[in-house]
């Protein structure tokens, strides 16, 4: 293969080049920091690259985009699981896909707690009023967390962390997921309740499920309708877990509040109605965006690219492609 061209995409915070010694590679490395405007934009910019390093789920790679990248031989993905990369299409086109481990980080759980507090105490609008010269006038009364009921949807690693913090705040912590048992709930600092009860009784609901065909849209219109007036819904997991149209209606009607870090379409379109609602606290998918995690991601992606260029690819997601890769 002639000197490879590497695209480091999705580097929104500009940390990729400092995370590894890319000059060690016999390759031309180009960084792309901004989100793509469209699939056409991505295809045009990336069509002459042999290797692409991407941050999991920031840029979608459906079969239609993969077919428009004739030189692509390696996709070096951060993380191990993604719903936005068509690995089958990569395999069919002889493209190697590598993955990285995820760092031990509870950052997404910490952000969920931050969004709870921001919603419960109306912190963003209070901050905005202070910057305009105001004080307490017009401020809504806050909700104390001590004594409130917290409902955790998905009591895995991150859900359990949020549950433990809820307990530390003196909250009554309940949990539900499709396969959760009473014993696992207790081990995760919560008690098991039915889905209907969780949504009807909780003052705050925090979502921590993994997105899959089984969980897509698992929180629907009926669930949101059961929530108490003024209750808070926090989602730092994945946008499509919740019926977005139903959530938007509940928010526009002022029935509930929400703290959102994830959306059906990312980046969130500039004209999306969520951006105009006073009862929503918005974050731009920051759950796992912390320095230590990204230093790990980019260094691990570098290691996978270096191994590939040396002819001994490691951490291959589609090992069946080895032996019939695109010519290098």
UniProtKB/TrEMBL annotation:
Q: Which PROSITE patterns match?
A: D_2_HYDROXYACID_DH_1 (PS00065), D_2_HYDROXYACID_DH_3 (PS00671)
What is the name listed in the Swiss-Prot or TrEMBL entry for this protein? Answer: Phosphoglycerate dehydrogenase-like enzyme
Q: Does the keyword NAD apply?
A: yes
List the molecular function annotations (GO) for this entry. NAD binding; oxidoreductase activity, acting on the CH-OH group of donors, NAD or NADP as acceptor
Q: Which organism is it from?
A: Enterovirga rhinocerotis
Q: Does the keyword Nucleotidyltransferase apply?
A: no
Start and end of every D-isomer specific 2-hydroxyacid dehydrogenase NAD-binding domain? 113-287
Keywords, alphabetical: Amino-acid biosynthesis, NAD, Oxidoreductase
Q: Where is the D-isomer specific 2-hydroxyacid dehydrogenase catalytic domain?
A: 20-318
């Amino acid at each position: 293969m002639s000197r490879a061209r590497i695209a480091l995409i999705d580097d929104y915070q500009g940390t990729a080049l400092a995370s590894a010694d890319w000059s060690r590679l016999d390759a031309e490395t180009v960084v792309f920091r901004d989100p793509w405007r469209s699939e056409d934009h991505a295809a045009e910019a990336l069509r002459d690259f042999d290797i692409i390093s991407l941050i999991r789920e920031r840029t979608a790679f459906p079969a239609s985009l993969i077919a428009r990248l004739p030189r692509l031989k390696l996709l070096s993905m951060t993380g191990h699981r993604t719903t936005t990369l068509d690995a089958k299409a990569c395999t069919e086109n002889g493209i190697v896909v590598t993955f990285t481990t995820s760092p031990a980080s509870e950052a997404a759980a910490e952000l969920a707690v931050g969004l709870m507090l921001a919603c419960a105490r109306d912190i963003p609008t209070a901050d905005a009023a202070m910057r305009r010269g105001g004080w307490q006038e017009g401020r809504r009364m806050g909700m104390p967390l001590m004594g409130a009921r917290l409902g955790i949807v998905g009591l895995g690693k991150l859900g359990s962390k949020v549950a433990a913090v809820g307990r530390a705040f003196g909250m009554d912590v309940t949990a539900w997921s499709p396969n959760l048992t009473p014993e696992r709930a207790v081990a995760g600092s919560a008690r098991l309740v039915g889905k209907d009860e969780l949504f009807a009784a909780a003052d705050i609901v925090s979502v921590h499920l993994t997105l899959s065909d089984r969980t897509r849209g698992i929180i629907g219109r009926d669930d949101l309708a059961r929530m108490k007036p003024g209750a808070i819904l926090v989602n730092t997991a994945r946008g499509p877990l919740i019926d977005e149209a139903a959530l938007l209606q509940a928010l526009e009607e002022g029935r509930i509040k929400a703290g959102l870090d994830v959306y059906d379409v990312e980046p969130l379109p500039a004209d999306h109605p969520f951006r105009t609602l006073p009862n929503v606290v918005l974050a731009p998918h920051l759950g796992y965006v912390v320095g230590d995690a990204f230093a790990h991601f980019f260094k691990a992606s570098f290691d996978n690219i270096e191994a590939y260029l040396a002819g001994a690819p490691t951490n291959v997601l589609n090992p069946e492609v080895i032996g019939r890769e695109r010519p290098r």
